Amino acid sequence: MNIFDKIKQTITGANEKVSSSLTDSTGAENADFKKVIVSTRNECLKMNEHFYEVKLSGIDVYQNEVQNWSDDKKTDFLLYCLSETDTYAKRNSDGSPEEYKDNIVRDAYLTQLLRTKIHYQDEGIIRIIDAFFTKKRYGKWCTFSQWPIALFINQLLNQYKANQPVDAVKAALGKLKNAYTSSDQTALKEVIKIKAKLDELLFEQSATEAKPTLFLGQDALAAYANPMLLAMENPEKQIWFDLLSKAQKASGAKPSKKYLDECHALVKTLETDKFKKIIGSWMEFVTAHKETIVTHTSGTGAQAYNYNTTEFLSGINLDTIKGLVWICAHFHDQNTLNLIAKLAERCFRKIPGKGPAAASLGNACLYALYKSKGLDGIGHLSRLKLRIKQSSTQTLIEKYIAEAAAFQKVSTHDIEDMAVEDFKLSNGKRSYAFEDYNCTLEITGIGKSMLSWTKPDGSPQKTVPAFIKEKYAQRLKKIKDTQKQIDQNTSAQRDRIDRLFRTGRVWNYENFEKYFLQHGLVSFIAEKIIWTFTDPENPGHPQSLIQIGQEWQDNKGNRVTPKNTCAVSLWHPALASTQETTEWRAFLNGQKIQQPLKQAYREVYLLTDAEINTRTYSNRMASHILKQHQFNMLAKTRGWKYSLLGAYDDGRDNESAKVHLPEYNLRAEYWVNEVAADDAFNDTGIWNYISTDQVRFIDTSNEQVKNLIDIPALPLSEVLRDVDLFVGVASVGNDPTWQDSGGLPAYRDYWTTFSFGDLSEVAKNRKEIITNLLPRLKISKVAQIKDKFLVVQGALRTYKIHLGSTNILMEPNDQYLCIVPDRSQKNHTENLFIPFEGDAGLSVILSKAFLLAQDDKITDATITSQINRS
């Protein structure tokens, strides 16, 4: 007789016992159970005429009667509820209102009893599991998994802590596990948890081997990490099992003190370095892991269809890593913090149609960085604030930085200055010795650096010496990783300093020197920026200076030594005269100084007569059609808050992008509306396009709208500059394919007007720069600036490239020429001196100009067909 025959015999025997006593005890007991249900229903009706769920904690019959029953009677009552629920489900909607309410009461008792500590007899466990399969909770199409099985399994885990279930019970539990295995829900987080608990119940522990706690399910992380765990020797293996067991149960947004204390004790026993090595490899694996496309089948027969979803890793295993990352808040070594920061950035990378890949794990990484000792973790948070675009995540990072600043008793700006990692650089360089060879890591630009090698005799070595690749491979890998981090941080610090223009921030000379001039990394950026020095003894005559070598010079080349008592701030053209700005531009061009950001050539936005007349708002950037997703990304890159508008009712009457200016007690708002024409929304219900409206400023002290004339020149100019950037980049008028690909027919006039209309402040700057560049370019004889265009005389036709949108018209009939930039093509500005970095539109204009100057050599049929069209 096999084990399933034994189960069948056990159940049959149990059923025979029940049948033989139906005329006496069972009938009476069922009547008693029915009475409890009716009494509970009547109590509920007295408390509330209408009820959809029942809370038994306030019911007298439950507290005074049911709770006092024996475990066996509670088991019988549970089985009664299962059976009667099934009977009701089979009748569907034929039952009376009283029966409907009784069913709600039974369901409440069923749930309550399954989460109550009951010592079940073997026979009772088998009958309950059998009922899960044979009874239906909601109807004939429902599966066994509709029952609250997890509650029952939790109670069994408590019951079998000290011993193991008998074979018949194990067989029933095995049947339950196999049912989940064959279910199409195996990827669900809760199902994976239930199967793990069933494994725990079925595991036969021996004197030498405890039950393993592994990553659950069958995702890539489990396949990678579980063999590592099983290959370990005791006691290390058992400690990891204990750590994973705790991590799998860790929940919430933050770890409890008890959890951290218990885990730290285990890590100490394991040895910290061993823990870091293993968790580090797991974090690296998750960071490098790519999403996969999973095909699902829904329906059956002729109604079956396939659909795809993008999956990362199972939620249960990501939660386990989350619990382990929390433990890392105890560490502050650079390698661990780097791994956590990389993992955070990976977790917030979006999966199409779903959002961040693993937001909960990402938040745990942010918490660990915030809680780590010292300021290195805050430095990573400062960088991540510029990299991660989700508004809620940016808010969380800002909260952590603010809390760290309050603890240090400094401002949030100060702590971000203090937290920038210098990577042991000196003036943008760092050297490494490899026996008699030397390696120099040097910053060469924003987001750019190089490794150079020298031989023992001091002569240059073109490539990495072979013996270093073989003998010092791991060290070389760390150097290259440091190089990558430096590249990321030069970009991040450039962007952070660029945002500081709108704050009007002032440093004392000591902090300015420490965190900018003498900082190994930031000094590379600071030395190419114009700074304003204000002597407290002569505040009416500030000096604007730039550092060349180790000396300060003004815009006429005069050497100046500012006092160490000066206050220091970023020079801004909005606060300077036109003459001073012009002189700085001429000086930078003459000295061939390329600024890492727009400063001397920074666009200035002064209040216009129209804005004085409208008084509280500006329509300067109104009535534009923008690509919403591109606008959203740009806004968040510049520190604005914005929520995408969807083609559904989310309770918002209108929406605006907002930026807070706490230094001035202001909040700027840029109003937008969805463009609902032609159902232009994507698969997730988000509108593709938005139309722009007014810009206004709010006084945050009283939430009143401020008159524009009362807004200081610097925040006014910076806010309007941001908004001009949003329009200039995200406008559909910049898309050369928009009109031809359909676009929105109702807005084609807008596309034409923007594409070839008046120049924005950004475009005016481009015009000035290209005017200065043209005499030095190969195309100078066939190109010239005319009004809003760079006009290029080709061999076949004459072309007008708009200096704003970069779109092209062909003479003589202003026929539109569509050319989509190829990013793989040569960058024609690479070897040209441009006074600042970062204007992609300038590069596009020059690339198109070089291409069209030799239009007779173009081979791309999509272009030649347009040029040759009469």
Set down the secondary structure blueprint.
Layout: H1 3-20, H2 22-47, H3 60-64, H4 71-91, H5 97-114, H6 122-134, H7 149-159, H8 167-181, H9 189-202, H10 220-230, H11 236-249, H12 257-270, H13 272-288, E1 292-298, E2 305-311, H14 315-327, H15 334-347, E3 350-351, E4 355-356, H16 359-371, H17 376-387, H18 391-408, H19 412-418, E5 429-434, E6 437-445, E7 448-454, E8 460-461, H20 466-471, H21 473-499, E9 506-508, H22 509-517, H23 522-526, E10 531-534, E11 543-548, E12 551-553, E13 559-560, E14 567-570, H24 578-591, H25 609-614, E15 617-618, E16 625-627, H26 628-637, E17 655-661, E18 666-674, E19 689-699, E20 704-705, H27 713-730, H28 748-755, H29 761-773, E21 783-786, E22 789-793, E23 798-802, E24 808-811, E25 815-817, H30 840-853, H31 861-867
Antiparallel strand pairs: 1-2, 3-4, 5-6, 6-7, 7-8, 9-14, 10-11, 10-14, 11-12, 12-13, 15-19, 16-19, 17-18, 18-19, 19-20, 21-22, 22-23, 23-24, 24-25
Number of strands: 25
The spatial strand order of the largest sheet comes to 9-14-10-11-12-13
Instruction: Give the terminus-to-terminus CA distance.
Output: 91 Å
- How large, in whole angstroms, is the Cα Rg? 35 Å
What summary fits the major beta sheet? 6 strands, antiparallel
Strand content: 5-15%
Amount of helix? 40-55%
Question: Structural class from helices and strands?
Answer: alpha+beta
User: How would you describe the shape?
Assistant: globular
Count helical runs.
31
* Poorly predicted runs of 5 or more residues: 10-24
Residue-averaged pLDDT: 88
